[in-house]
Amino acid sequence: MPQGKEPPQLLKQRLFYLGRKFNYEVTRLRLPNGVEGEWECVRHPGGALAVPVTKEGKLILLRQYRFAVEGRILEFPAGTLEPGEDAAETIKREIEEETGYRAKTWTKLGEFFLAPGYSDEIIYAFLAQDLEPLETPPNQDDDEDMETVLMTPQELEQAILDGEPIDAKSISSFFLARPFLK
To answer: Rounded to an integer, what distance in angstroms lies between the CA atom of residue 37 and that of residue 94?
Structure first.
């Protein structure tokens, strides 16, 4: 059993929503400390994220409209893992689709839970370097509304400190990538 895993005793489980990207369930459990209760959980296959860095040392981000927050937020390219797909495959596909670049050099930065209070989603973060533009720019998915933004690491850090809307997975991945940035 992986470190940190202490399975609770499952008493009852109900699936409330079976979705395209995630499921929502309510589960009655007995925790390892003996406490019983009901917990809601978003079950997610996980996501992969790239911190793309140009030869000039600029970061490629996206300013994307997110319906849940009713506005645009700054984030690194990312995507949901498809069934049976490795996180490295996911992000190589997503970076091309979302930015129009292909990376020659990939470094795994780490992985982390996004919001473990209500979801099992894990983000697999990668550093993407030695970028080259694709010959044919990608077509945006119908359900995506985004623009590409280039920033220096210092500009991104200032945007974070200034409270610009930036998602948590991008902030976390930026700090994982900082030792590799010039």
So the answer is: 39
DSSP strand E in the chain: where?
9-18, 23-30, 36-43, 47-52, 59-66, 71-75, 78-80, 101-113, 122-133, 146-151
136-157: pLDDT as tens digits: 877 666 667 899 999 999 999 9
Q: What would the DSSP string read from start to end of 99-150? A: HSEEEEEEEEEEEEES-TTTB--EEEEEEEEEEEE-SSPPPPPTT--EEEEE
pLDDT, one tens digit per residue, over 152-180 is 999 999 999 999 999 999 999 999 999 99
Strand, coil or helix: 8? coil
Per the CB < 8 A criterion, the answer to whether 29 and 153 are in contact is: no
46: left (phi over 0), alpha (psi -120 to 50) or beta: left
What's the mean per-residue pLDDT of the chain? 93
Q: Are 134 and 102 in contact (CB under 8 A)?
A: yes
Q: Is 156 helix (H, G, I), strand (E, B) or coil?
A: helix
